[in-house]
Amino acid sequence: MEYLWLIIAVAVVVVGGLAGLVATRGRGRRTDSPVATKDVPDVIAPAEPTVGEDAETPRDTPTRTVEDAALPTLERPEPTASRLVRLRSRLSRSQGALGRGLLTLLSRDVIDEDTWEEIEDTLLTADVGVTPTQELVERLRTRVKVEGKTAASMRDILREELLTLIDPSLDRALHVDRKDGKPGVVLVVGVNGTGKTTTVGKLARVLVAEDKQVVLGAADTFRAAAAEQLTTWGERVGVPAVRGPEGSDPASVAFEAVKTGAEQEADVVIVDTAGRLQNKAGLMDELGKVKRVVEKQAPVSEVLLVLDATTGQNGMVQARVFSEVVDVTGIVLTKLDGSAKGGIVVAVQRELGVPVKLVGLGEGADDLAPFDPETFVDALLGGADA
């Protein structure tokens, strides 16, 4: 009887082992039967949803939230002080030839009529203009005769007379502050190709560096890339740009820009205008309309004329046309660092009777600086040893 129970026990163990083996093999085989899948007790659902053979191993670290993700950082424009340092450095390299040439002539042992003619030619070549050149030469003649000349005195005399010619008494401040609850409005005008739209973008950076809230108006609707270009400039420093469809009415875009500036309580709205110069009548109609429409929202506080300093007398022709069309309050000279003809500063001020307020010194984003007469004259004479 005991043997019978022993045989039964062994049989039970053998049968149990075979059953376990069959279950293990069943789990290793793929089955499409939902019943079979449900009956396998140790199937564990994946920790993350996966897709076919491309599924990845679940990460141990949590995913980043929106707050954790790196957002684009707005650029911080360069402050005015460092712009002025670069202004002097670049002007002394590009314009120093004028100062050196004049000091070399004035330092001759004998200054005769031929020398004075050479001085006059040097100034005319630098685009100073006929009348300002004659005035400067006459004053230099008088002072040399009365005060005599040494290397030091000639440098001082020339500096004083050049400074007088540029007229440091002119108001060169940008009038862009809010007034009576309305933003200041700046119209930027000029012929296409002078760097007008780029100047608007750079001017926005100058004002942002002064902690002003700025809105841009892309009212040059006839040049396909102008609005896109201006929008990009604004995005870099967090400044909104109001634009319309290509070919739309510039005045309506300008109106919306000023309206947006007023609603957002911005300090200043800068409006880029079209730079077409087919004929004076068409230009007058277009710019006149823009100004009239804008002034329904807020008065125009500045009209800045952008001129290319390298164009010389051609730039003077453009300046005259625009001054007859709109009331220009200030001049922006671009590409001043690329020309040895710094006398255009004097000529254009004399022609229009308004000051140069800003100068462009290169292609960099912060290469626009307030024009400072003393810095300019010192740059002209920088490195010029008598």
Helix/strand layout:
Elements: H1 2-28, H2 34-39, H3 80-106, H4 113-125, H5 130-147, H6 151-166, E1 184-189, H7 196-209, E2 214-218, H8 224-237, E3 241-242, H9 250-263, E4 268-272, H10 280-294, E5 300-308, H11 313-325, E6 330-334, H12 344-352, E7 356-360, E8 368-370, H13 373-381
Parallel strand pairs: 1-4, 1-5, 2-3, 2-4, 5-6, 6-7
Antiparallel strand pairs: 7-8
Helix pairs in contact: 3-4, 3-13, 4-5, 5-6, 6-13, 7-8, 9-10, 10-11, 11-12
Question: Briefly, what is this?
Answer:
This protein has 386 residues and is α/β, with parallel strands linked by helices.
Question: CATH topology of the domain at 184-334, which one?
Answer: Rossmann fold
Spans where pLDDT lies below 50 across 5 or more residues: 21-71
How many helices? 13
Helix and strand run: HHHHHHEHEHEHEHEHEHEEH
CATH class call of the domain at 184-334: Alpha Beta
Strand order of the main beta sheet, please? 3-2-4-1-5-6-7-8
Largest sheet: 8 strands, mixed
